[in-house]
What does this fold into?
Amino acid sequence: MNKIIYLDNAATTRVSEEVANTVTNAMTEDYFNPSALYLPSVNAATAIRKARETVKSAMHAPDGELYFTSGGTESNNTALFCTRKPKNSRIIVGMGEHDSVNVSANELKSQGYDVVFAPINPDGTVSVEEFKRLLSGDVSLVSVMHASNETGGINDIATLVKMTRQAAPKAVFHSDGVQAFGKIPVNLRALGVDLYSVSAHKLHGPKGIGALFIKKGVSVKPLLYGGGQEKGMRSGTENFPSVLGFEKAVESGIIKNFEGNYSKISQYREYLCAQLCEHIPDVKIITPMDKSVPNVLTVAFKDVRGEVLLHALEKHGILVGIGSACSSHHESRFKSLLGLDERYRDGIVRFSMSEENDESEINYVIKAIADEIFVLSKFRRV
Ligand code: PLP
It folds into this structure.
């Protein structure tokens, strides 16, 4: 089989043809600096304002502003470092957050803030009870992701926000929505968050473009200073082609085709899960199937190393993940948090699909996994 079966869409997605055409056109035809004064530039600035409204309305945002950034990492760094925080105040961060939050939180800790990490459940979501225990009147910032990049588990953000408002009315609540936006309906009014991060390349948009939504009245300083673009919040010549590509991806993936894509991806995942359980011995499903994004299925295989299986499947043209692509070159801190039995701990594999996958691929995938697991576990016994 020469075709690639791409099952690592939580790491990144293929840019769709219409997004690629939009970006190419903006680079070759409408390449003007949106801050210049002549008409083509004024038109570019107008197009950016329209894109801002498109992305904002897709997240049902309350009063506030959406600022384009270079992606989820920059949005998360802005949320953590640039919100107003009294010296030494408490910051609560989920234990399973993406490194762009986790490493930033550790840096804030080294600057003297009282950073505490909210423990997670075996399915990767933050434990509401444990979170409650960490709340106190001097919390200045909370950062809990909407959906886990490792398991797809969805956090009960609305409840965490309510609990935070009661205990610490002045605290700013940030949620990293990078794995949720485009995968589940996102309604920031209902969630009640102050800040929300998104990234285009997880929904068939270009890499290197994302956004941070900031609710009206929440004080956030810029991370980057300079020419004052993005109303002074994010200096640097606007990434006009990618902004338009992001808008196109949102129009296609959220505004026009959300329901069709959602049911297709969910069915595909259900089938994969059922087939794995039927044909592969001792597989543990880690993703909470009833409260997760529809595109992620994280499992643990017994007595097999996820990394070895990843490379074995690659020989069959199947590309899967073993958790966050960003931390795949060093030991993932995440797997030790899940409380897995030792024989499963190294065997975590994340399958993440998109609407471009097809149910017919699954039988091939299952057969390849079954064959490889048989060989690999035999090898371990030698
Ligand atoms: N947050 C989460 C949950 C992610 O999964 C990722 C990317 O893997 C990021 C943040 C970083 O986003 P970006 O790659 O746009 O910087």
